[in-house]
Design goal:
The structure is a single chain. This protein is 27% helix and 13% strand. It is of the alpha+beta class. The relative contact order is 0.21. A two-stranded antiparallel ribbon has the order 1-2.
Length: 60
């Protein structure tokens, strides 16, 4: 098994990118995200997405 095999989240899906405003708010910092306001689910701004990826990354 390669490192990529166990570090990948199989069912991780991202919301569709918005074509333009209005944008959904980040659930952590309330800044605008790249996702449409109509998307129902967890939305993170690019900064919080990066921090979450760092926090949950494999250390192996």
């Amino acid at each position: 098994m390669s490192e990529a095999d166990y570090c990948t989240i199989a069912d991780a899906t991202k919301p569709p990118k918005a074509d333009g405003p209005p944008y959904a708010e980040c659930v952590l910092c309330r800044e605008p995200t790249e996702y449409p306001e109509s998307y129902k689910g967890l939305t993170l701004c690019p900064v919080c997405e990066w921090r979450e990826a760092e926090r949950t990354a494999c250390s192996g």
